Amino acid sequence: MRKRRVVAALTGAVTLMTSLAVATSPAAAAVEATPPSLSDFTLVRTNTNLQSIVDDLDAELPKLGVQNILKQANRDDAPKGSDCTSPALDTMTRSVKRKFCFNAGDRDTEKWMPQGVTTVADAQDDQYWGEKQAILVSWYSKESNPAKGVRVSFLDPDTGNYQHVLLVYPYVNSYGNASYEAVTTPQAGDGTSVHAGGIVWYGNYLYVVDTKRGIRVFDMRYIFDIKSASNGDVTDSAQVGRQSGTYYSYGYRYVMPQVAGWSNPDGVASFPSGHKCKTSGPQKFSYVALDRSTEPDTLITGEYCAKQDDPDTYGRVARWPLDGSTGMPKTSGGVWQATHAYRLPQPRVQGAVATSGRWYLHSTGNGATGPGYLRAAEAGSGSTGVLNSVTNNLEVAIGVEDLSYWPGKDELWTVTEHPGKRIVYATGRP
To answer: For the whole prediction, is pTM greater than 0.90?
Structure first.
């Protein structure tokens, strides 16, 4: 398969402001975080040709809706009920309201890492997709030869069964035919899999964060069934896309192609090594969530940042307005501009969600053996500021990741990432 290379670089100016807190000792000083600038939070539409390529794939390949995918979910051997347990929960100090397990292969594999979570409560006000409900989990491929990109598990909470769907990037191959490839960064180059640290299902669309670029958009109405295609092959786990007239999918039955993209104005951004962050410049898109309590609904994006001395490098979160009538971004002049941005009160935040003015943060720092943390915080009345903690860190499961809020059940959902310690669970809000 011929690949194309896309290279972009982005640098940002760094600003720093500190203030001193008076203490009894002249040497004692506290450094306070400063509000971020909204001008750093702008996305522009890219990949404008993708829908036409997906339309060409639609003419070639059969597709299946979410309800039917849930009904025939092939991962039906995961532990259920009281049999669904995980050592990841050994550190929990809060009660678990609901939980779901992966089967042994997905629980233990080191080839795929779960990251993002979203539910049907993000997708629909009535919290149903037809007659079904669903919980979705994103995974990124740890393999490099080839990097297989991103897959999403569609889990039916009524049965505990789930089905993987491979996310793909559509393109026109050298013969002029519609094809697709793994979702990588840089796209169409010899890059690694997109981390997919957070996902949101909103209306017909699935929003997936791409750490250094922005947000990719997929459409639930275009989930193609490669197994049922007359020219599809799901027996070959080493190939993807159209090869000599046959469509491959790394062995997965279903593929869902990207239909749109929203990127930093200058493309792929650069960040310090070691998971560190800058004080200003384009945001790192580490996770994403939905807040349905705002008007309009807003996407929440945020940064995972390693511990640094400057609290301005703990990370930032931002709100992005959505158009509830279309499920797409609410833009002005073709630009998607964040309406609010805040500094985080601590580093190593893996997920953030907000509802009714209160923020909930997941953080880590204890590796594969120590607890993760859940904290509640609040923002001031301005469009920028610093989140102020209203609870201390509460110990939760080991390796917690993205967060999603289910309003009708008042549940905070997450997934844990470490091999052997993977589980999807919900707890109540602090």
So the answer is: yes
